[in-house]
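Incident review: delayed structure delivery

Summary: a single-chain prediction request sat in the queue longer than the usual turnaround. Root cause was a stuck worker, restarted by the on-call engineer. No data loss occurred. The affected request and its eventual output are reproduced below so the record is complete for anyone auditing the incident later.

Affected input:
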Amino acid sequence: MSNPEAVNGDEKRGLTPILLFFLLTFVISWGWAFVVFFLPDVYYAQSYASVVGVLATLFVSIQAFGPTISALVVTGYFEGNGFKQFSESLIKFKVKYYWYLLVFLLPIFVYSLPVAFNLALGNPSNHDYFNVSLWGITFAAVISNVFFAALAEEPGWRGYALPKMNQHFRPIISGVIIGVIWAFWHLLFYVFGSRDWSTFPQFVFTVTVISCIYTWIYLKTKSIPLMVIFHVMHNLSNTVFINYHNPLWGGIIYFAVLIVILLCDSATLLKKTKP
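Output delivered after worker restart:
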C-alpha cells in the first residue's frame, strides 16, 4: 500500500523543475529588459537596415528567449539525458496536413470574423479593409514574429512546461496556469508604456483562452513547429485586424472555439495523463 505522504513528497519534488522554469524565465526576460532600459541608444538603434541595427535588434531581443533558455537550463540541470525527448518535439514536422491548415487558418478566421460581420452589415464602420498598406505586414514583421516571438517562446511554454505540467494537472488546468503566467510575462509592455493598461484584462483573458487551445493542439500532435506557426499566425492576424475592431472580440471568439473543442473532444483536455 502506498504512503500518501511519500506520494505528496514526490509530487512536490516533481513540481520543482517547473517552478524553477517559470522563475528563471522571468529572471532572464525581465532582467535583460531592465538592462536594455538603461541602454536607450542600443534600444533605439534597432533596425533591419544596417549591420549595427541588426546587431542592436539581436541584443535587445535576447529577453524574448527567456522561456527557451530557461527550458534548456532546467532540462540540463534536472535531466541530463532529457534533451533527446525535448528536441524530438522541436523537429516534429510530420503531422496530418489538416493540422497545418488549422493553425494557419484559425487565427485568420478568429480575427476576420468581426470584419466579415461588419461588411455583412454594409460596413457601417467605414473601414478600408482591403488597403494592404494599412495591415502592418512587412518582411521585418514576419521575421520578428518567427524568431523573436514564436521560436523564442514556444520551445519553453509548450515544449517544456506543458508536458511537465500535464504530469501533475489535467491539461485544461495546465493550459490555464501557463496562459496566466504567459500573459503576466508580457507585463513589461505595459510597465514601459508600449501598451495601454486598459487592455491588460482582455489580454490576460485572450492569452489564457488561446493557451488552452495551444494545449489541445499540442496534445493531439506533439509538434512544436505547429505551435510556432500558430503563434506567428495569431500575432500577424492580430496585427492586421487590431485596428478594425475591439481586441476583446478575438478573445471571445477564441473562447467559443474552445467551447466547441471541449464539446467535441473533452477527453483530451479534461483527462489527466499519466507521468
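Verification: The chain has 13 helices and no strands.
Action items: add queue-age alerting; document worker restart procedure.
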